[in-house]
């Protein structure tokens, strides 16, 4: 399995990137914190995990091996797929996940999109002993910072709009259009932002 890639970033979005390694372009999904550090033309090393399904092979890339390991560990819990695992790492660093799950903090875990109280309790039950091995990257300044609230909703919105057929450029413009709503109400749901974004796109 491919564990890491070193090459040049040739394309990047809010939730994905393409890295050129010896003339081969590898596309990988990523988390908001890593996406925020990507710059087209930069040479970098990404730590990867390959998610295998019956009908697809999907690569995920992370700024640190600790994030990749946490991503894989989270998926060992019942009901946690790659998207939920990625959302967890967009909200918490690996070390924070260890602390939240070890402390059985259901409230904080439910701040992750896609995790409700029952799901949080199941994750804690199944992973409480396993997360003791999780740690944050060394303090050498290279580890990406946890995503901001704006990075989180923008990433979700762009991904959702792209899934509906809009281009990345159109999706990002729609995000700019609804940004004032998110600023006025930080607790606004992604559903309301999506409806507002679709309305903005329809007026173009």
From TrEMBL:
Keywords from UniProt, A to Z, are: ATP-binding, Cytoplasm, DNA damage, DNA recombination, DNA repair, DNA-binding, Helicase, Hydrolase, Nucleotide-binding
Q: Does the keyword Cell inner membrane apply?
A: no
What SMART domains does its record include?
A: HhH1
What is the name listed in the Swiss-Prot or TrEMBL entry for this protein? Answer: Holliday junction branch migration complex subunit RuvA
Please tell me the species this chain comes from. Answer: Tessaracoccus oleiagri
Name the gene for this chain: ruvA
Gene3D superfamilies with a match to the protein in the record: 5' to 3' exonuclease, C-terminal subdomain, DNA helicase RuvA subunit, C-terminal domain, Nucleic acid-binding proteins
What biological process terms from GO does the record include? Answer: DNA recombination; DNA repair
- Cellular compartments per GO CC: cytoplasm; Holliday junction helicase complex; Holliday junction resolvase complex
């Amino acid at each position: 399995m491919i564990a890491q890639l070193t090459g040049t970033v040739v394309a990047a979005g809010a939730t994905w990137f393409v890295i050129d390694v010896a003339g081969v372009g590898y596309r990988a999904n990523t988390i908001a914190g890593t996406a925020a550090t990507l710059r087209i033309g930069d040479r970098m090393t990404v730590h990867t995990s390959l998610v295998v399904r019956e009908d697809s092979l999907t690569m995920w890339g992370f700024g640190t091996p600790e994030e990749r390991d946490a991503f894989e560990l989270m998926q060992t819990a019942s009901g946690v797929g790659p998207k939920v695992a990625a959302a967890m790492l967009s909200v918490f660093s690996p070390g924070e996940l260890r602390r939240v799950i070890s402390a059985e903090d259901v409230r904080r875990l439910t701040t992750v999109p896609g995790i409700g109280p029952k799901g949080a309790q199941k994750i804690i039950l199944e992973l409480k002993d396993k997360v003791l091995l999780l740690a944050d990257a060394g303090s050498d300044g290279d580890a990406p910072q946890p995503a901001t609230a704006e990075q989180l909703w923008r990433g979700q919105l762009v991904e959702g709009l792209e899934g509906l057929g809009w281009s990345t450029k159109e999706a990002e413009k729609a995000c700019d259009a609804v940004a004032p709503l998110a600023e006025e109400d930080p607790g606004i749901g992604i559903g309301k932002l999506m409806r507002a974004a679709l309305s903005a796109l329809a007026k173009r």
